[in-house]
Amino acid sequence: MSSFVEVEDVSKLFTPRLSVGERIASALGSAVETRSLHAVDKLSLRIDRGEVMGLVGESGCGKSTLGRIMAGILPPTSGAVRVAGQPVMSAGRKPSKRTTRVQMVFQDPFASLDPRMRIGETIAEGPIAHGFVDRSGVVPYVGQWLTAVGLDPGFASRFPHQFSGGQRQRVAIARALAMQPDVLICDEPVAALDVSIQAQIINLFLKLRRELKLTMLFISHDLGVVRHVADRTAIMYLGRIIEVGETQSLYQNPSHPYTQGLLDSVPKLVLADDESVTFRPIEGELPSPLSPPTGCHFHPRCPIAVARCKVDTPQLRAAASASRRVACHLAPPVASLAPA
Amino acid sequence: MSQPALEVRDLATHFTTRSGVLKAVDGVSFALAQGEVIGLVGESGSGKTVTGFSILGLVDAPGRIVAGSVKLAGQELVGLSGRALRTLRGRRIAMVFQDPMTTLNPVLTIGRQMQLAILAHERAGSTAVRDRSVAALARVGIPDAYRRLHAYPHELSGGMRQRVAIAIALLHRPDVIVCDEPTTALDVSIQAQILTEMKSLVRDLGTALIWISHDLATVSSLASRVLVMYAGRIIEEGPTAGVLRSPFHPYTRGLLDSLPSRSVPGGDLAQIPGSTPSLLRLPEGCAFRSRCARATELCLAPPPLERSGVRAYRCHHPLSAEVAA
Questions:
Q1: Where is A319: in which H helix or E strand?
Q2: Cβ(B66)–Cβ(B126) under 8 Å?
């Protein structure tokens, strides 16, 4: 059975360019030590049509790199991403034609819009180039998408600096939607916004999702936001997905020790006068992705690690519940079906 | 009752710009008891950071403290010369900034920066300086502290850098530390570590903290009292749990309701309409008026600070909440 979006064994290696001396040394046959960074490590992920997949992880875990690979902005080192069976971009060099079925919304609406283009031009550029609309129909076309994101169609002739952060993010969303994508990759789309504006943009995503039946990858470090918008959630740690499952069950009953630790780290609102500690930190620091720990990447920080975790890399496997997959040797087995 | 560690009264910091006078902080008053932790909460542009900067006399032109007073253990800070302020800053009152990447000097080792911070206020031998630095780093949970003295900031992670910044702020055991969004740039697991360290430091050393943040949950887990700022004014204050449980001001209520954790997953979030008004063109009366569902003609007049027990708010139409205990 194939899913709508398939990420198959995708890896991304960033290798620093060798200096002249190192290149000569390497040409002369001496072994030059190259330190490459495994941003994404043989990762597979499936998203069904119309599903919102949340992707959570700390900085440096590779979640943005994965988003960019899925959007076809960055070629993977190996592996492939397919949308409805069609490759978005396969390993190696630039493909001749990129897909327009996947579009992306970036974190910082101050950096992702060209300050010298009127927002109408920004929104219309892609659709004109790809023939979704001809020049005579541009004005109503742009107006239609501005309306869809809750902006006045008359704003099309304004420049980005005339908008607030929340409005700019609406423009960025309109630009992505105007390409009529099937899949929307959102990389921390609300992280740069104030709490009250964040709620407006989250509501917009929920509305668009209902109306346009969009399939989404929603990347965020904010566990609360992901819990609110995602049907399923994947947790990433140092280039690998360590747990993926149905969002509510994953938050209520996390199976991987890292997921548990991450959820415990988030401070909760204290509403009682005597309640004090509402969070518990994970011990230690994120290891350098240049030299990740052997075996399970999480074992040096894991409270329950055993000897096996140091040598044996756990693979994602069904655990805890039927819809959950966990990369941990110690994850509990799938609960046997309760009697009907 | 003993003297407060810090007392801010009617503080006003204005910026003179080409388009007019921007009232970033407009009549802020509060007192901080010794060893107390208060949270200063607001969205961007609410004046929370400028309040912190004003307390330490760090506001640069075109900004200026135009009125009010800031008293550190009874001593007036507003109007002090730069030299006089420098003898206090770092020793009696310190600040931790948001971005640990830019607050440390990139070309000096951690040890050298700590040495400079110590020698700025007292004479000490190199062994004593080193021992104190190691002790300060160890206290904020930096492993292998002695070796870290020789490290440069770029060799440390963001979380470690922020710990170093906190260690430097703690060197002279100041009475008051102003923390401006110190964990905003950090990951949640690192944030939890820093919050845990801060809690035990405050408990052990009796330092008073002003914790500036936009994150209500972080503030609620740390601060006993919270001040909510909007458009340069404190619009609500009181014991944290009480304010968050039953706010008087519609803005506080709106902030709380817009948190995803407070609603059904997948359902629409309660949102505050509109956006923060420009400080150059503040509406007359209550600044929140145009975004408020409860606003009436009464709100055209600026709401005075109403007190209700230990709580206070600026609103003509407060939410009929339970009166705080």
A1: strand A317-319
A2: no
Q: Which residue has the tokens 């008073």?
A: B208
User: Hey, are the CB atoms on B220 and A267 less than 8 Å from each other?
Assistant: yes
A 10 A CB-CB count for A20 gives 7
Q: How far is A211 from chain B (nearest CA, A)?
A: 14
Question: Which spans in A51-137 are helix H?
Answer: 63-70, 119-129
Instruction: Give strand ranges (E) for chain B.
Output: 6-17, 20-32, 37-41, 63-72, 75-76, 93-96, 176-180, 208-213, 225-230, 233-239, 306-308, 311-313
**Candidates A63, A194, A258, A276, partner chain B, best to mutate (most B CBs within 10 A):** A194
C-alpha gyration radius of chain B: 21
pLDDT in tens, A103-161: 999 988 888 999 999 999 999 999 999 889 988 999 999 999 999 999 999 999 999 99
Distance CA A271, CA B47 (A): 26
> How far is Cα A56 from Cα A71, in angstroms, rounded to an integer?
17
Report the alpha-carbon distance of residue B240 to residue B228 in Å, rounded. Answer: 10
* Structure confidence at residue B324 (pLDDT): 42
Could you give the strand order of the β-sheet that contains A102-105, starting from the edge strand earlier in sequence?
Answer: A102-105, A183-187, A215-220, A52-56, A232-237, A240-246, A321-326, A317-319
For residue A337, what pLDDT is reported? 46
Using left for φ > 0, alpha for ψ between -120 and 50, and beta otherwise, residue B273 falls in beta
Residues in chain B with CB shorter than 8 Å from the CB of A201 are none
Per-residue model confidence (pLDDT) at position A52: 96
Average pLDDT, chain A: 88
| pTM of the predicted protein model | 0.85
Amino acid at B310: V
Quick one: tokens of B179? 């923390």
Q: Is the CB of residue B77 less than 8 Å from the CB of residue B7?
A: no
Please list, residue by residue across B87-124, b when 16 or more beta carbons sit within 10 angstroms of its beta carbon and e when fewer do.
Answer: ebbbbbbbbbbbbbeebbeeeebbbebbbebbeebeee
When scoring B275, B278, B281, B288 by the number of chain A Cβ atoms within 10 A, the one with the most, hence best to mutate, is B275
- Mean local confidence (pLDDT), A34-58: 90
Residues with Cβ within 8 Å of residue A147, at least 6 apart in sequence: A153
Judge: domain A5-101+181-326, CATH 1.25.40.10.
no
Give, in degrees to the nearest 5, the angle at Cα A253 between A251 and A258. Answer: 75
pLDDT digits (tens, 9 = 90+) for B301-323: 999 999 988 999 999 999 975 44
pLDDT tens string B121-172? 999 999 999 999 999 998 888 888 888 999 999 888 888 898 899 999 989 9
